[in-house]
Amino acid sequence: QVQLVESGGGLVQAGGSLRLSCAASGRAFSVYRMGWFRQAPGKEREFVTAIDWSGGTTYYADSVKGRFTISRTNAKNTVFLQMNGLKPEDTAIYYCALYVPASGRYEYWGQGTQVTVSS
């Protein structure tokens, strides 16, 4: 099966930056779209951003527009999340996910990486 592993999380002060990465591996597959989601304590998982592999079209939640940037390295099936101007409300576990066009859903998920933004 496909495995996704995130890295780059940590503790940062408000206004700081972090760069997350996620690499997909496993049986042969073609990436159509990868995205980032996050889940804060006691809250539902929410969409953050995504990027299409073909063409590089990006999508962002309103809450992160202008602060977060998603990018990719196609040859390595790797997606990045550059987070600038971090706020305490960005504190959450961040997950990368692989979109499956056949189902129209994100079906593969990473283990998550903790991002904590202090005041």
Structure explained in plain terms:
By secondary structure, the chain is mainly beta. About 0% of the residues lie in helices and about 55% in strands. It has strands at about 5, 10-15, 20-25, 35-40, 45-50, 60, 70-75, 80-85, 90-100, 105-110, 115-119. It is globular, with a radius of gyration of 14 Å. The model has no long low-confidence stretch (mean pLDDT about 95).
The gist of it:
Helix content is about 0%, strand content about 55%.
Give the key terms.
119 residues; mainly beta; four-stranded antiparallel sheet; 11 strands; globular
Furnish the topology, listing elements before pairings:
Elements: E1 3-7, E2 10-13, E3 18-25, E4 33-39, E5 46-52, E6 58-60, E7 68-73, E8 78-83, E9 92-100, E10 105-109, E11 113-118
SSE-based structural type: mainly beta
Biggest β-sheet description: 7 strands, mixed
Work out the number of β strands.
11
C-alpha termini separation? 40 Å
Helix content: under 10%
SSE series: EEEEEEEEEEE
Strand content: over 45%
* Global Rg: 14 Å
| Helix run count | 0
**What's the average pLDDT?**
95
Uncertain runs are none
